[in-house]
Amino acid sequence: MIKEEKIKDWIVDEGIFREKKLDDNADFHYIIEFPNDNIMDVVRPKGKDFVLIACATQVSPQHLELMNNSSPKERSDFLLDVNMAINQFLVDCQLAVDQNTNLLQQYVITYQIFDDGITKNTLFDALKRVFKSKIQCVWLIEKTFGTVQNAPTEPSNENSMFI
To answer: Which domains does the chain have, with CATH numbers?
Structure first.
């Protein structure tokens, strides 16, 4: 089993460590900022033999407004496009879709690395994979529904998967 200290050393060495979270369901849980202005979680669920990389993203009110002004067909086509695009990154994704409006509210992208395959390189490959999946979804929203002006740039824990 890879040691928690090794994971922490890697994320501290690369300057992406933000905080350690107290989490009764995890052996360890770190909040990181990777890349700049993007919050992600690095977690070893209690009793598991893998590390989970996760990024939860709330769709902004501005994007929801743009999506709300679209047709039902555009919304359905968009959700299919999101699923197909994210699937190409070989990550797991949960889409939270409002069943009444068919609007995407939030999405959580995760990737797991089992202990026998974790290295600093595989950890950072996983971080890149999860981030690129997240940003792909943002780009699809903007491509399909339009661009939001003055999007927030301050990093926060609002997209941490456990907030």
So the answer is: 4-149 (3.30.1460.10)
